[in-house]
Amino acid sequence: TARIIVIANQKGGVGKTTTSVNLATAMAACGRRVLLVDFDPQGNASTGFGIDLDARRETNSYRLLTGEVDASAACHKTDISGLDILPAIVDLSAAEIELADVDAREFRLQTALQMVVHQYDYIFIDCPPSLGLLTVNALCAADCVIVPLQCEFYALEGLSQLMRTIEMVQQGLNRNLVVQGIVLTMFDSRNKLSEMVANDVRSHFGNLVYHTVIPRNVRISEAPSFGQPVLIYDLKCAGAQAYVALAAELLSQEKEA
Amino acid sequence: TARIIVIANQKGGVGKTTTSVNLATAMAACGRRVLLVDFDPQGNASTGFGIDLDARRETNSYRLLTGEVDASAACHKTDISGLDILPAIVDLSAAEIELADVDAREFRLQTALQMVVHQYDYIFIDCPPSLGLLTVNALCAADCVIVPLQCEFYALEGLSQLMRTIEMVQQGLNRNLVVQGIVLTMFDSRNKLSEMVANDVRSHFGNLVYHTVIPRNVRISEAPSFGQPVLIYDLKCAGAQAYVALAAELLSQEKEA
Ligand SMILES: Nc1ncnc2c1ncn2[C@@H]1O[C@H](COP(=O)(O)OP(=O)(O)OP(=O)(O)O)[C@@H](O)[C@H]1O
Ligand SMILES: Nc1ncnc2c1ncn2[C@@H]1O[C@H](COP(=O)(O)OP(=O)(O)OP(=O)(O)O)[C@@H](O)[C@H]1O
Ligand SMILES: [Mg+2]
Ligand SMILES: [Mg+2]
Q: Is the distance from CB of A27 to CB of A157 less than 8 angstroms?
């Protein structure tokens, strides 16, 4: 059954969506059957694959949580063979309040995904920039977490808070949850701050930090305006190649497990 | 009494904190009495002024919301004369749930700030990357909103959602709220995407977009690691000068009003 990987970090703009979209694409390119769940009300991952708003209106992750649709109805094909997406709409932000008093509110996503876990090898979940009920639902559904970490000072500051939240979930709601790894993003070799943050993180977290570092690369930020992952938009660019290398590292990590 | 300006955008990492910290500093440098309210549980604005965690533990925006402290007790002096800060701690993220069933939950911040509005000319409020109860509280306390907009595709996508939320608050909870302006941030002249986003926003929003554009500038991202606004860390750099120009534009806008 599928390995469920959450891409989470409450700090905003660190590369969660970019990592979800491109890592999922790279894994599908390696022949794995992959589902990407867009669990952010902004719906950026859905846009990253060119899923227009009309197509998402009836079948999406909000209606999955409320129970109006089941998981297989909510999965959409993408232009990439082997990769489906469960898109998001802005109504998803209402779920935090609507589910506040519901029983087992933290396990709504986990329960809903059970129907499709046998159809995929990997399920990636893109999270919003917060540690609220949506991210907690994703952490409860997951086997592991990949943390994108922007090589900036404010992003470093938030890491200990994220790790504390993951620990809380590990001790209570989901004892199987592990941190799969930390991936450094938007690394700019001309900026000594990037180097400082990277060294700091590696000294604290050692092997938990992937060797692959995602460089700041303008082609990555252009790709979403074409509704394509950067692996499709410009496979030869440094950004796309870094995500291919990250997928290879993830696959070799799995083999060891 | 103080003009209350909220810095808001649910998209993560667009420069909300950077704009709050440096605009507040620039206004203080122009002789105004300024308070910066850190209303993001990440507490980045507080870190941007070097307020350590011990100093924030008792007097902060979370305890202001719960009523455990009043506003004048919660305001801290910064190293910049004329600029105080009301810092944030991570407990603030619990407020969304704790206040869910409280009467007039959207007006807790507005009520709490009444005690200090006569001591300042400007109060800036830095928001988290979401449109939940914390941001709604800030919009209900405010006279106007400044929207930092990163010159990237995903950031552009979120703007219409933000404007709809502001309209909802204007029609219901705070009829006086206006959008003061949109400021383009992290503009990279070497990247045609920046130009595209800037042209798109100016054609839609016209004069609502400030003339001043904040360039991507490495000194801006270095300053927080020294606990200083970039105006103090390196006043001559392009980033600091852009925030000085933005403050001048804001002041001339106020004169016209
Ligand atoms: N390596 C990179 N090089 C250049 N630009 C990047 C890179 N990674 C991401 N970006 C751009 O930076 C912005 C932020 O990235 P992204 O939206 O993926 O972050 P996020 O963590 O998902 O944000 P949010 O917190 O809002 O969900 C986007 O405009 C994206 O295109
Ligand atoms: N003009 C700029 N040039 C270079 N770096 C910048 C600029 N503005 C902000 N940054 C850096 O980009 C990152 C994101 O900025 P910031 O934290 O201010 O955004 P935010 O919208 O407050 O994020 P969040 O959504 O997490 O609250 C920070 O590391 C900051 O130092
Ligand atoms: Mg995202
Ligand atoms: Mg911020």
A: no
Q: Which two tokens stand for residue A58?
A: 């009836």
Q: Token pair for residue A117?
A: 């876990």
Find, in chain A, the residue whose alpha carbon is nearest to that of B95: A132
Side by side, the strands of the sheet bearing A76-77 are: A76-77, A83-86, A34-38, A122-126, A3-7, A144-150, A178-185
Under 8 Å between Cβ of A102 and A69? no
Asked if B130's CB is within 8 angstroms of A132's CB, the reply is yes
pLDDT in tens, B140-149: 999 999 999 9
3-state DSSP call for residue A197? helix
Q: Residue B248 is encoded by which pair of tokens?
A: 């001048």
Q: Supply the mean pLDDT for chain A.
A: 96
Instruction: Report the C-alpha gap between A5 and A114 in whole angstroms.
Output: 14
Ligand 2 contacts CB of residue B186 (under 6 A): yes
Reduce the DSSP state of residue A11 to 3 states and report it.
coil
**Which residues partner with B124 through β-bridges?**
B5, B36
Among candidates A207, A257, A240, A201, which has minimal Cα distance to A19?
A: A240
Cβ neighbors of B203 (< 8 A, separation 6 or more) are none
Atom of ligand 1 nearest to the CA of B10: 26
pLDDT-derived band at A248, boundaries 50, 70, 90: very high
